[in-house]
Amino acid sequence: MSTDFKPAQFVQTMVDVGEAKTKTSTRDLLLRGTMAGIILSLAVVVAITTIVQTGMGVVGALVFPVGFVILSVMGYDLVTGVFGLAPLAKFENRPGITWNRIFRCWGLVGLGNLIGSLLVAYLVAVSLTGNFSLELNAVAKKFIAVSTARSLGFENMGMDGWITCFVRGIFCNLMVCLGVIGNMTARTVAGRVAMMWFPIFIFFALVFEHTVVNMFLFPLGMILGADFGIATWLNFNLIPTILGNIVGGLVMTCIPLYLTHAKTAPSLDAEDEAEVAVNAEPALSK
């Protein structure tokens, strides 16, 4: 038996998963979203710590996917994943799927992600500062530098900064949704891990903007004393990131896969056969 699924098979799984998530209860969407936010936030801490320790960003990118793999195997949800998957059930006209239910799914998973991220941000700040009694160490200073550069730095660029963040959000969720789908492409855990790891490594290594990562990174920066406020974070990072993630995950990843593998156009041979059949009809009627 093959150890992997063909595209036509895992695209049907994508639609099934999108339908299931859209119909999931409020409690479970919040719980799964919260746990996903907690796990992904801790993965960010691991990645930033290794970057500080080694001085190499690529090392952080290599270890960061461990959080994504864990939360995916546990069945927890990131809003970036449901941005792409949930609408597929509507496109397939699955019973009971409406845009209101899709937006509800997005909102509840996103709220859960935010709750988990904020909780970990506060606790990590306590851990890094000895309950706010110690001087900031190198890891804490790195969090401040990174969050400032990608919020206040974008604000100082004006509209150019907003567009830059939006584009990075597009590329980010193109990769992240490929990671989500990668979890559906293999029958073995090892195969699924590999297919998740590679695209998540790419997004982190190229410093693209991820909604849930940023729900953790920027509040932590502010708690540690970074020189920017909530309005700057929202207007010049989180909002363009969310919009970019929707475009990247849905328009650039899930819809193309759905169209070409679930709604495949007729092949050239099929078109030729149809044309022959049409031409044969007049001859048969004589």
Automatic annotation (TrEMBL):
GO terms for molecular function: formate transmembrane transporter activity. One of its GO terms (cellular component) is plasma membrane. Keywords: Membrane, Transmembrane, Transmembrane helix. It is a multi-pass membrane protein. It comes from the Bacteria. Gene3D superfamilies: Glycerol uptake facilitator protein. The chain crosses the membrane at residues 29-52, 58-85, 105-125, 161-181, 193-218, 238-259. It is found in: Membrane. PANTHER family: FORMATE TRANSPORTER-RELATED, FORMATE_NITRATE FAMILY TRANSPORTER (EUROFUNG). Belongs to the FNT transporter (TC 1.A.16) family. This is Formate/nitrite transporter family protein. It comes from Vibrio gelatinilyticus.
